[in-house]
Specification:
The protein is α+β, with helices and mostly antiparallel strands and about 230 residues long. About 30% of the residues lie in helices and about 10% in strands. The protein has 4 helices and 5 strands, in the order H-H-E-H-E-E-E-E-H. Strand 4 and strand 5 form a beta hairpin.
Length: about 230
Amino acid sequence: MSRRHAFTLIELLVVVAIIALLIAILLPSLARAREQAKQTVCASNERQMGIAFYYYIDGNRDTFPFYRAAEASWAGTTGNELYYHWFERVRWYIINDKSIPKEFACWRCPSSKAAKYDADFLTYGYNYTHLGDWPPGVIAHLAEVREPARTIVVADSDETTTGFGLWGSVISPADYWVIYPVGDRHLLKANVLYADWHVDLQRASLLNSQRRQFPRDATYWWDVDEKVRLVYGN
């Protein structure tokens, strides 16, 4: 007659402990893989923006867009006001539709939970301080860009930052008078679209700490031609 063998309490506890240890080891790797997948989608979004910028600049006498056109009032960033913002103007160049969407998912970073298609909460910020401020500020020409492969056009933004509103749709360097930082939601890194229209992953802390030095500073990626812009005081 055969005897039935059961697990002892100690054996069960050992098995549970091993399973818990394996889960603890695997979960960070799974989370990292999930975030890397989201970062890839985000980079694809910015490449689409690069195409849109290319066609916008080609159709507008080699100029970058103002981040916000003069026709719009200061208050309000929803509804018809979106018509005047940079992201809506360049969107027209890849989608032949000037009606304003409530949501434009392909320009929403999948790593952000708070984002929506709105200037306050957009997850992609435009380097407006050196490319296209509102009139009578400055507007840059693509031909003026000294090093396109090292000049920031758009990057992941921190849509939770407070300034004059939240303004997730813009970014600005540390030496600007009001700072709208680059977001660090991709494992402390950010996708960046450069003026040669390639996208690269950079440490957000590096971009947020760059300050222009004179004479010519090869590590400052915010300015197009390194001219002193008195309107900004930097």
